[in-house]
Design brief:
The strands form two sheets. The chain has an eight-stranded mixed beta sheet, sandwiched between helices. A two-stranded antiparallel sheet has the order 5-6. It has two domains: 1-34; 43-298, Zn peptidases (Aminopeptidase, 3-Layer(aba) Sandwich), CATH 3.40.630. It contains nine helices and ten strands. The longest helix has 27 residues, at 7-33. It is of the alpha/beta class. Helix 7 crosses helix 9. It has helices spanning 7-33, 38-43, 92-107, 126-133, 141-145, 192-204, 230-243, 260-266, 284-298; strands at 56-61, 67-73, 78-83, 116-121, 174-177, 180-183, 208-214, 218-220, 246-248, 271-276. Helix 7 links the parallel strand 8 and strand 9. It is globular. The structure holds zinc ion. Zinc ion (ZN) is lined by residues 87, 91, 213. The site of zinc ion has 3 residues, from loops.
């Protein structure tokens, strides 16, 4: 028979209870005692870096609320930024090229020289991608090859604004695309997609920015009012030499106002435009060679 007043039995019954209490205490307490990395603490004020400072962050949202993401690799002081998809689904291959770069750097982080930090914004106009492909986030080459945007509808954001005319360099409400008038928004940076890119640039202060577009089959320098920056010309030539694309100082097929590259030039950030040869290929080996040439130019 059990004797409930027996001290021995009390110990037997209470021991598991105490162990459970102790475990609960340990597990509840662990997160509080875990040291918070200093960098994360410093970045807590800024929404750009709240989630994963050196991996993947949402830098803003499209008009329809689709996230615009940035992936960052390396922890060096010199920051380079690569941007795909500002012309959305019309140039979906520029999005796939940016994702190919993300995959490459994820698989081989050692590609990034120690003094560099590389950010990639793969899809700067996710509503434009959705308008053509009907997909959110990543998509495959097979999915994309089934559709071709011959009208150019997916080039614009949901407000029908050409985002690469919405930046603060010679901005005008109407600009052109191949001689056709396009909306450049109600003011420079009126569109949330352009704002997200602007804010990320102003925060990260990259040494250079590379935009992927299609399909002019060349690498272009940039300028706003004061001519081409010397570093811009250098990196255009370095990328062109390594990749095999032709280097072109000024895009003069038709007049462009409010382009992102021009805005960067106006704030002294070198920017180049890489135009793929078609709307359906990413020309990976050529571009990887060009990207590595930039890593070499800026890194040690
Ligand atoms: Zn484009």
């Amino acid at each position: 028979m059990f004797n409930l007043s027996s001290p021995k039995l009390a110990v037997i019954l209470l021991t598991p209870v105490l162990v459970l209490l102790l475990l609960a205490f340990i597990f509840i307490d662990v997160p509080e005692e875990k040291p918070v990395p200093v960098m994360k603490d410093e970045l807590v004020q800024d929404p750009v870096d709240v989630e994963e400072p050196l991996e993947q962050v949402t830098i803003g949202n499209s008009v329809s609320g689709r996230p615009i993401e940035a992936y960052t690799f390396g922890e060096g002081d010199t920051h380079l930024l690569f941007v795909g998809g500002i012309h959305g689904g019309y140039e979906w291959n520029s999005v796939l090229l940016a994702y190919a770069l993300i995959d490459q750097l994820t698989a081989t982080p050692s590609l990034v020289p120690q003094d560099l930090q590389i950010s990639v914004i793969p899809s700067a106009n996710p509503d434009g991608v959705f308008a053509v492909l009907g997909t959110e986030g990543r998509f495959t080459l097979d999915e994309a090859r089934k559709v071709t945007d011959t009208t150019g509808k997916g080039r614009f954001n949901i407000n029908n604004v050409d985002l690469n005319r919405n930046f603060d360099c010679k901005w005008q409400p109407k600009s052109t695309w191949r001689g056709t008038p396009v909306s450049a928004g109600t003011s420079a940076f009126s569109e949330p997609e352009a704002k997200a890119l602007r804010d990320f640039v102003l925060k990260k202060k990259p040494q250079a920015v590379v935009f992927f577009h299609s399909q002019s089959n060349a690498v272009y320098a940039s300028e706003c009012q004061n001519g081409i920056l010397p570093v811009t010309r250098d990196i255009m030539n370095a990328y062109a030499r390594a990749s095999g694309y032709k280097a072109v100082d000024i895009f003069d097929a038709y007049e462009v106002t409010g382009d992102a590259e021009g805005w960067l030039a106006s704030i002294n950030i070198p920017a180049i435009t890489v135009e793929l040869a078609t709307h359906e290929t990413i020309e990976w080996e050529k571009n990887l060679a060009g990207i590595k040439a930039l890593f070499e130019y800026f890194g040690h």
